[in-house]
């Protein structure tokens, strides 16, 4: 496995078109991705004392979070509008290797903070709605 730079882990937001074009969310300094799944237990007395799970069952989801410096980019403005409107939008996570994950997400948290003489920063949390496709 090749080591990849964290700065190449990018969050991108779609433009709202049927086939979206994606713009990188500027100013993100940290990004985190979690793939979550619930297990469906199908253990019986015939399982020999070992837990058995049902493959492909349960609810899967992807959570994304990030933090950075607010730059006022068009992508950040779109995210803010989605957060205020409670709307689901297209997002893509891209990696240095060229791989990506694309899906529809809801902004579940958007926080802004700032010091008197410092930059304005923000944190964001996204939760998937529907399938997330790896490419």
Care to describe what's here?
- The chain has one helix at 74-85; strands at residues 10-14, 22-24, 28-37, 60-69, 88-94, 100-114, 120-128, 133-134.
- Strands 1, 2, 3, 4, 5, 6, 7 and 8 form an 8-stranded antiparallel beta sheet that branches.
- The chain starts with 9 loop residues before the first strand and ends with a strand.
- By secondary structure, the protein is mainly beta.
- The longest helix is centred in the middle third of the chain and has 12 residues, at 74-85.
- It is elongated and about 65 Å long.
- The protein is 9% helix and 45% strand.
The rough form would be described as: elongated
Provide the succession of SSEs: EEEEHEEEE
What is the C-alpha radius of gyration, as a whole number of Å? 18 Å
Measure the end-to-end span: 17 Å
Biggest beta sheet summary = 8 strands, antiparallel
Number of strand elements:
8
Percentage of residues assigned to helices? under 10%
The portion of residues forming beta strands comes to over 45%
Averaging pLDDT over every residue, what do you get?
91
- Indicate the structural class: mainly beta
Count of helix runs: 1
**Could you name the ranges where pLDDT drops below 50 across 5 or more consecutive residues?**
none
Structure in a nutshell:
The chain has one helix at residues 74-85, and strands at 10-14, 22-24, 28-37, 60-69, 88-94, 100-114, 120-128, 133-134.
Highlighted features:
1 helix, 135 residues, mainly beta, eight-stranded antiparallel β-sheet, 45% strand
